[in-house]
Amino acid sequence: MSAKPKVAFFDFACCEGCQLQIANLEEDILGLLGLVDLVEFREVMTGTAPEYDIAFIEGSITRKADEERLKDIRNRAKILVAYGQCAVTGGINKLKNLHSDMMEVRKIVYKDKAAMEHLDTYPTRAVGDVVKVDLIIPGCPINKDEFVSIVKQLALGKIPRIPDYPVCVECKLKENVCRYDEGEICLGPIARAGCGAICPSNGVACDACRGTVSNPNKQAMHEVLAKYNLTVDEIIGKINIFAVDPEVSK
Amino acid sequence: MEILKISLSDFLAHVNKKIQAGDSKQVGVVPKGSHFVFGELDEAAQLCLDYDVTILPPKKYFQPQREVLVKYAPKDASSYAMVNDCENLTLIGVHPYDLVAIHLMDRAFSEGERDENYMAKRDCSVLIGLYPTRGFEHRFSASMIDPQMPYKVADLMLIKLDDNQLALEVVSKKGKAYLEGAAVAKSDLSEAFLAQARNKVKDSQAFPLGPDKSPAYFKEKYEHPVWEKLGEKCYSCGSCVFVCPTCYCFDVRDEVELSLASGERVRYWDGCMIESFAICAGDHNFRKERGARFRHRVFRKTVTLPEKYQVMGCVGCGRCAQACTADIAGPMKVIKTMKEMN
Ligand code: SF4
Ligand code: SF4
Ligand code: SF4
Ligand code: SF4
Ligand code: SF4
Fold first, then answer.
1. Which residue segment(s) compose the domain that A233 sits in?
2. Same domain, residue pair A99 and A178
């Protein structure tokens, strides 16, 4: 890309924590603005543009209207990036999909106000369930450094790569005591690295907030759980927090 | 070889003098939670001379997890400058199997294409070995290493005689220089006594094959179902290769600053057990199956390196067996499973 790529940011169902990570880039934001031409970003500016070289999508899809808006963005974007776990897998929003009746979910959360019209949503879908996604930036929230590195690679015309190996890799590089040696269950062996194994580095097991690697060994995870006299059902809460991968919990 | 004696407190006092002098970083084994690691000593009292195994081997000092090799300005070809940062380092308390591993790493990094970054760090180091006084359930090093080989790289060897006394084997000039000013005395100990003191702990298991028989044995098992059987349980998490003292694989990446005005070429640890390790030429993965990767790693230790160096490529430290959350990585486990399947 010779001219600066036109970049836009959009949000759907989410807490906007990921775009806050970007707004919080501080000194890096100036460097980024040197690389790209920011044409749409509700959190930090006003204005719209007819087309984009790169569209960053945050949040998951929960309404018909969302779907149409997303498809329209897709049509106008050369590269579409799903960033943040809500967009990548559905994230925490997918917890509601554990219930089959959406009205029941509304009652759990909003009690007597459950009938409010704007709460009318369908089961959570990831961005990739609705349109073609060219690239993902996982994390809940995303890792600022990883975001910057991906924008750099895109601006340089490279195919961006994000880690597709387990958190154990980064954990070993930091020489942490393994949580399993402390009798805990850690999702690190199936979780996608890129966070620098921040949780085990601070003595806490990994919850796979960045989702899993693209080819997680769920069979191995089940066997290891069995060794600890646990079943997937017993740790399903842990696995479901970040909608890791429905396949892993089967 | 000169053999000396020193009291533990005098040895620690000497290490303290070295720390204060500050001309060589003093690194020793220190506790980390319920485990041990090599770490810089602020004072000699932190030094642990009675440990089972460290999480990572000492290789992290010679081939760091992240190492800048070149700095450059992307648009200026004349700007490319090699980086070779190293500092004087003394490693205290290296077990014999780790010394043998360092010897193997030295060969890998110096023969053929010499790796200046690794070798410069090795040249700046003093290695003080230590015979273990604590067993480790996964260790099987006695069956894997030639007891003379640690002396190829050690500068000094420590033998704990009791809680207060150490015997010191002075192996090299560097080792002798390290002891200058230390309160050492000539040893009056018999070789028989020392031999016993060197072998205070016994391994609970032994690998049945040496470097002469191992390559042929494993080559014949190339198509054995054990690879798939154990590979099926493998997370491809790489723990077994990162903790291995004889694994040296790395990846090299270019990292450019956001301004695109400056960049660094950096190498990171990488390893053959990671699924993306063998991806090349776009998206071609030449070692796609877990079982194939599992076999490759075991073959590196039992076939490739023994054929190349006539020494086992595994030193029997047992780290991989401990680090593997799927409990499949240990070479002892592999050979046992193989035999059970026959
Ligand atoms: S603590 Fe978790 S991430 Fe770290 S090595 Fe153990 S299983 Fe892997
Ligand atoms: S939960 Fe796991 S993937 Fe998420 S930040 Fe913690 S260690 Fe990283
Ligand atoms: S293969 Fe395992 S036991 Fe052998 S040297 Fe490597 S980590 Fe140690
Ligand atoms: S066993 Fe694998 S990671 Fe280790 S040095 Fe060999 S090829 Fe590299
Ligand atoms: S440590 Fe175990 S699970 Fe991880 S890559 Fe090695 S053999 Fe596979």
1. 167-249
2. no
Instruction: Find chain B residues with C-beta within 8 A of A152's C-beta.
Output: 256, 258, 260
Same domain, A69 and A42: yes
pLDDT digits (tens, 9 = 90+) for A98-107: 888 888 888 8
Across the interface, whether the CB atoms of A177 and B34 are under 8 A apart is answered yes
Whole-angstrom distance, CA of residue A52 vs CA of residue A77: 5
Torsion of CA A77, A83, A89, A95, to 10 degrees: -120
**A184 and A143 both lie in a single domain:** no
How many structural domains does chain A have?
Answer: 2
CATH number at residue A92: 3.40.50.700
Question: What 3-state DSSP class applies to A75?
Answer: helix
Contact A217, B293 (CB under 8 A): no
Mean pLDDT by 10 residues, chain B (342 residues): 96 97 96 97 97 98 97 88 94 98 97 95 97 97 97 98 94 97 94 94 96 96 94 95 97 85 93 83 77 94 94 97 96 94 82
Higher pLDDT, B93 or A95: B93
Alpha-carbon gap, residue B284 to B280, rounded angstroms: 5
Whether A123 and A187 map to the same domain: the answer is: no
Minimal C-alpha gap between B168 and chain A (Å)? 30
Q: B240 is written with which tokens?
A: 């077994």
Identify all chain A residues contacting B287, using CB atoms and an 8 Å cutoff.
Answer: none
- Give CA–CA dist B59/B78, Å, rounded: 33
Domain boundary among A111, A132, A155: A155
SS3 call for B179: coil
Q: Please count the helices (runs of H) and the strands (runs of E) in chain B.
A: 12, 14
Is-contact B140 B178, C-beta < 8 A? no
Do A106 and A185 fall into the same domain? Answer: no
Is B73 strand, coil or helix?
strand
**Touching check for A166 and chain B: CB below 8 Å?**
yes
**Does A224 sit within 8 Å of B34, measured CB to CB?**
no
Same domain, A188 and A116: no
- Domains in chain B: boundaries: 2-198, 214-341
**Cross-chain Cβ contact B37/A223 below 8 Å:** no
Domain identity same for A174 and A149? no
User: Tens of pLDDT along A230-248?
Assistant: 777 666 666 666 555 544 4
pLDDT digits (tens, 9 = 90+) for A13-66: 999 899 889 888 877 877 888 888 888 887 666 666 788 999 999 999 999 999
Query: Domain check: are A74 and A134 in the same one?
Result: yes
Quick check: A189 and B325 CB within 8 A?
yes
* Boundary of a domain, candidates A155, A179, A197: A155
- Unique residue bearing structure tokens 């009318």: A120
Residue A151 Cβ inside 6 Å of ligand 2? The answer reads no
**Chain B: residues touching A (Cβ < 8 Å):** 32-35, 37, 55-56, 60, 65-66, 232-239, 242-243, 256-260, 268-269, 274-276, 290, 322-323, 325-327
